[in-house]
Design a protein that fits this description.
Distance between the termini: 73 Å
Structural class: mainly beta
Biased composition (Acidic residues): 80-90
Low-confidence stretches: none
Biased composition (Basic and acidic residues): 59-71
Mean pLDDT: 76
Region (Disordered): 57-90
Largest sheet: 3 strands, antiparallel
Order of helices and strands: EEEEEEH
Number of helices: 1
Oligomer: single chain
CATH class of the domain at 4-57: Mainly Beta
Length: 90
């Protein structure tokens, strides 16, 4: 089952409302049908005004994998112990 659906609601007066919604968003709120628009706004329609509702699954977007950072083959060499010994015994 798809997570995101393109919703198209046609009212009896001929208005069409479209939006993208996921399954966790409400379909009915206090008796009204809520449609989330792509700009983030919501439209609430009375069920008596709705002639048709269509839920079409949105295809999953292929996310290109981010290039992995190159791993360094050489690790930083530990500090020379003789240098640190000379500094402390002056």
């Amino acid at each position: 089952m798809a997570d995101t659906y393109r919703i198209t609601v046609t009212t009896k007066s001929g208005e069409t409302h479209e939006g993208l919604m996921n399954r966790s968003q409400p379909e009915m709120v206090n008796g009204f049908i809520g449609v989330a628009r792509e700009d983030g706004a919501w439209v609430y329609l009375a069920p008596d005004d709705v002639l048709k509702m269509e839920y079409v699954p949105e295809p999953l977007k292929e996310v290109e994998p981010e290039p992995k950072p190159e791993t360094e083959t050489e690790q930083s060499a530990p500090a020379d112990e003789t240098d640190s010994a000379e500094e402390t015994t002056e």
